[in-house]
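Input (structure):
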């Protein structure tokens, strides 16, 4: 079953997160500075679902608003964000699903103008790491999102996005781990177009 981890990934973007602090902590300000310093990014990703199954692919990000998760050839899925919603295209069953991005820490990844302190809080992390957690107490069924950053002096804002974990209300965990992060390259807007697999569709 290959759709579960992709749906968890989509939920990470779509889930509203409310965890405001009176004033952002220094590390949270550094995260915000990193997000605003990155205009484009590519990375390899590895996604592990609650059953230990792994899918991999390439993440492409272009701010503001655009993101693409291109899975390996054996996985007939594609996830694309346009700043307003996240679209999951399942080419195996010819289905397209769309979620509003909403207010969440991962939404802040593609819109650096958002105030991350309104959506997330710092949690204890190992040396050299920053962890930001978000959850909505009004909707516990949405679960918890934890985003990890690694301190890297040569990277934008001194940080590199390392990945994130989504934990649902039933305790199921889906984790995305990033590697080979690169910044500042030219990325065409055509990268974020996708073919609509639904019959009699005009496509995109």
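Output (sequence):
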């Amino acid at each position: 079953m290959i759709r579960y981890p992709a749906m968890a990934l989509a939920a990470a973007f779509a889930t509203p997160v409310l965890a405001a602090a009176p004033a952002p902590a220094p590390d949270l300000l550094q995260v915000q500075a990193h997000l605003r310093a990155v205009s484009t990014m590519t990375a390899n990703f590895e996604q592990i679902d609650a059953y230990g199954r792994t899918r991999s692919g390439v993440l492409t990000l272009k701010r503001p608003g655009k993101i693409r998760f291109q899975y390996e050839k054996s996985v007939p899925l594609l996830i694309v964000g346009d700043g307003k919603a996240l679209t999951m295209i399942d080419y195996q069953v010819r289905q397209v699903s769309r979620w509003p991005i909403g207010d969440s820490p991962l939404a802040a990844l593609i819109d650096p103008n958002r105030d991350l302190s309104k959506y997330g809080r710092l949690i204890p992390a190992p040396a050299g790491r920053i962890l930001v957690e978000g959850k909505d107490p009004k909707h516990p069924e949405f679960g918890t999102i934890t985003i990890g950053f690694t301190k890297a002096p040569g990277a934008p804002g001194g940080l590199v996005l390392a990945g994130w974990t989504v934990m649902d209300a039933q305790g199921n965990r889906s984790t995305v781990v990033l590697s080979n992060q690169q910044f500042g390259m030219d990325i065409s807007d055509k990268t974020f177009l996708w073919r609509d697999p639904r019959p009699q569709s005009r496509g995109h």
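Notes: Residues 15-22 have pLDDT under 50 and may be disordered. The radius of gyration is 16 Å.
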